[in-house]
UniProtKB/TrEMBL annotation:
The name this protein goes by in its record: Protein kinase domain-containing protein
Cellular compartments annotated: Membrane
Positions of the Protein kinase domain: 347-619
Residues spanning the membrane: 259-283
Organism whose genome encodes this protein: Datura stramonium (Jimsonweed)
Coiled coil: none
PANTHER family, per database record: LEUCINE-RICH REPEAT RECEPTOR-LIKE PROTEIN KINASE PXC1 (PTHR48007), OS01G0711200 PROTEIN (PTHR48007:SF53)
UniProt cross-references to Gene3D superfamilies, sorted A to Z: Phosphorylase Kinase, domain 1, Ribonuclease Inhibitor, Transferase(Phosphotransferase) domain 1
Superkingdom of source: Eukaryota
Keyword field: Leucine-rich repeat, Membrane, Repeat, Signal, Transmembrane, Transmembrane helix
Length: 628
């Protein structure tokens, strides 16, 4: 009985200890957030929320202590000293921020992975490195550290595999030949510093790029030999066996001149080839345009012979009759050329592109000016005519690189005709999910990031337009089209707001606040409560499509968003990313950063989601780092 009491008391003590420690960890995180999160990206951090809902934080499943922090590309500033209380942390990743103060390393004895690159840390190498016996990877690159590195302390790390110190202001020597950093270091870089002296033999296995930018450093693999104790002259070119640099001075001079002439010749040939290619492309484009104009004129002649052969009027199964309606004037906006009456469209040659959730789309060739547009025909119960006319006039005045322009419209009691620019390269949905079998051309990472940024710019422009608080209402990857220049353009703006249509229960883009349980009576006025924050949620789902290559087909526990959250809560791994992105392993940081943006957009509470202008800035920062 006494033994049982001791066990119970011990268990109670352990439970209380872990609870107190867990509370201390979260207090430390909140203290760090209050000082460092000046951009308010960590809105999901709340003391009453479970660890799994905290962005970039992972806790131990038993002790609930914080063991991992991944907060990259979040514009964090100031000191990381509040994190010193996280004594159980194993993984600390804070790269690409603006942090400037770092404590001693010995406050985190369990650290295995440290990624603090691209910040503003300064001062000497953080002391206490010898205490991190489990350390495997250390990245302090692209900071403002100075002074010597503690070679002796680094020598006491048996498991160290990665040491990145490039582009700081470190100085001093790298140690003697007999002194080497313990462990099996496989990744090493000290380029862009002020190191001096001879490169130790044990470091000579690494490439030249690991040492460049240190003017006073010498020894293999660099091409400069170190001066002997009796020679005080500057380092000279190193002689290596069978090296092309072992020629007399005159031959080296001749070689340099010949090499210069060769480079100039190659550059001249390159310029000539570039001019020829540009000339050919211009000629080919001009010939295509002439062929297209000839084809359209030929179509016009054929129309004069037989008006009913391929007109938009005959593409309609039913609808506008050839009465006075056909001569009704359309409401035209900037760029509306070659048509101003309904009949101008009805007699034009047309090709059906497909049927969507809000109507049928036709590719229409305007015969008078060889222009090609898209006519969307909507046959649904519309709101009051005054609302339709006013709303469409607002949409028609939107002009932005990343918005599909509405050129004209015609509305009646029975139907609605909308005329848009024709974008030939299809939708983002087709580019991501079309033809996933053999013969598919994968969508590369740079293009995906470009589409994400373009869509963000378009939606941000819409949300901030003239302070109207307008929202899209049905933002999906199918409503993101690509133009001739590869720009992502958002389309079908506000059409769902005009139509009395129930929200599909299988809509994977739908924000939680729009679910049917929150909107039982779907016939009431404004039942769905569309908002700009619901657009932000939908945008987050589109980002997940871009990153995972999976289709957003459902909501609830089986949705794409829920699946990604489950994977992310387990570990930040490649499991979540599209297999087509596996060849861009070096871009993992950018992919994870974009995933974090998506997760911020998918917060369940609308008020905690960022505005699109903030989302645009976050993606723009990722793209800038991608282009460096």
């Amino acid at each position: 009985m006494a033994s049982l009491s001791k066990i119970l008391c011990f268990s109670l003590f352990i439970s209380v200890f872990f609870t107190i420690s867990h509370s201390d960890d979260f207090s430390a995180l909140l203290a760090f957030k209050s000082r460092a999160d000046t951009s308010n990206f960590l809105t999901s951090w709340s003391k009453n929320a479970p660890c799994s809902s905290w962005l970039g934080v992972k806790c131990h499943p038993v002790t609930h202590r914080v063991i991992k922090i991944v907060l990259n590309h979040l514009n964090l500033t100031g000191s990381i000293h509040p994190l010193t209380q996280l004594t159980q942390i194993r993984h600390l990743s804070l790269h690409h921020n603006s942090l400037s103060s770092i404590p001693k390393f010995d406050v985190w004895p369990n650290l295995k992975h440290v990624y603090l690159s691209h910040n503003k840390f300064s001062g000497e190498f953080p002391p206490g490195i010898y205490s991190l016996k489990r350390l495997r990877r250390l990245d302090l690159s692209f900071n403002e550290f100075s002074g010597e590195i503690p070679v002796t302390e680094l020598n006491q790390l048996p498991h160290l595999m990665t040491l990145y110190l490039e582009f700081n202001s470190f100085s001093g020597s790298l140690g003697a030949d007999e002194t080497r950093v313990a462990g099996s270091v496989k990744e090493f870089n000290i380029s862009g510093n002020n190191f001096s002296g001879k490169i130790p033999n044990w470091l000579s296995k690494f490439p030249v790029a690991s040492f460049t930018g240190n003017a006073r450093l010498c020894g293999y693999p660099l091409r400069t030999i170190c001066p002997s104790e009796t020679v005080t002259s500057n380092p000279t070119v190193m002689s290596t066996p069978n090296s092309q640099f072992n020629f007399p001075n005159q031959k080296k001079k001749n070689l340099s001149e010949n090499m210069f002439l060769l480079i100039v010749t190659i550059d001249a040939l390159g310029v000539m080839m570039t001019v020829l290619v540009i000339t050919w492309c211009c000629y080919y484009r001009k010939k295509n345009q002439e062929s297209e104009i000839y084809r359209l004129k030929k179509t016009k002649r054929k129309y004069n012979q037989d008006t009913s052969s391929s007109s938009l009027y005959h593409s309609f199964e039913y609808g506008i009759k050839r009465t006075s309606d056909q001569f009704a004037t359309m409401v035209c906006f900037e760029g509306c050329k070659g048509f101003n009456k309904v009949d101008d469209l009805l007699k034009a040659s047309a090709e059906m592109l497909g049927k969507g959730s809000v109507g049928t789309s036709y590719k229409v060739a305007i015969l008078d000016n060889a222009d090609v547009v898209v006519v969307k025909r909507v046959i649904e119960k519309l709101k009051k005519m005054k609302d339709v006319d006013g709303f469409l006039r607002l949409i028609g005045n939107l002009r932005h690189t990343n918005v599909v322009s509405l050129r004209a419209f015609y509305s009646s009691k029975e139907e609605l005709l909308l005329v848009y620019d024709f974008l030939p390269n299809g939708s983002l949905h087709n580019l991501l999910h079309g033809n996933r079998g053999p013969g598919r051309t994968p969508l590369d990472w740079t293009t995906r990031l470009k589409y994400a940024l373009g869509a963000a710019k378009g939606l941000s422009f819409l949300h901030s337009y003239n302070k109207t608080k307008i929202c899209h209402g049905n933002f999906t990857s199918s409503n993101i089209l690509t133009d001739h220049y590869g720009n992502a353009c958002i389309s079908d703006i506000g059409l769902h707001l005009l139509l009395q249509m129930p929200i599909s229960s299988n809509n994977g883009y739908k924000a939680p606040e729009l679910s049917t349980q929150n909107n039982v009576n779907t016939t009431n006025q404004n039942p769905r409560k569309f908002s700009q924050k619901s657009d932000v949620y939908s945008f987050g789902v589109v980002l997940l499509e871009i990153l995972t290559g999976k289709i957003a087909t459902s909501e609830g526990e089986t949705s794409l968003a829920k699946w990604v959250q489950r994977v992310v809560n387990k570990e930040w791994t490649w499991d979540v990313f599209d297999f087509e992105l596996a060849r861009y392993k070096e871009k993992e940081d950018e992919m994870v950063a974009l995933l974090k943006v998506a997760m911020a957009c998918l917060v369940s509470s609308p008020k905690d989601r960022p505005k699109m202008i903030v989302v645009e800035k976050m993606i723009e920062d990722i793209a800038k780092k991608e282009n460096r």
